[in-house]
Amino acid sequence: xxxxxxxxxxxxxxxxxxxxxxxxxxxxxxxxxxxxxxxxxxxxxxxxxxxxxxxxxxxxxxxxxxxxxxxxxxxxxxxxxxxxxxxxxxxxxxxxxxxxxxxxxxxxxxxxxxxxxxxxxxxxxxxxxxxxxxxx
Length: 136
Ligand SMILES: [Zn+2]
What we know:
single chain; alpha+beta; Beta-clip-like; three-stranded antiparallel sheet; binds zinc ion
């Protein structure tokens, strides 16, 4: 973990989002492929993951290929909104850590988004792609 440079962590702010509730915004330009911040959370097993998703409606659980990581307690990451053409993506880093990367160049003032990538989200999504799909 020590050599992971998360240069943009201090430039992230949470404020009102036009997508949903509040969102994470950057106050500086972020070049494509940059490491934006770490996503750390509680490591849980599959049974507990399913329970939290169903009983607690927890949508902040990430899968890193080995473990389920519940990031619901993090002040920042729970404000990361879904968008179908996102400017960020999440990849695994180690057993209990994921990393948020810039999918493309992101300008100061933009909201950071990822594709949540599960069926139900597209029902709630109001992006142009989903709005058109639902209008058909
Ligand atoms: Zn959408």
